[in-house]
Amino acid sequence: MLILVAIICLRFSAIEWAEEDLGTRLYHSFKLILWCILFGLFLAIMKIIFSSSNPPHLKLPASANFAWGLKRGITMGGFLILLVGIVHLDNFMGVFQPFIDKLLGNLLGLF
Question: How many other β-carbons are positioned within 10 Å of the β-carbon of residue 80?
Answer without folding.
Answer: 14
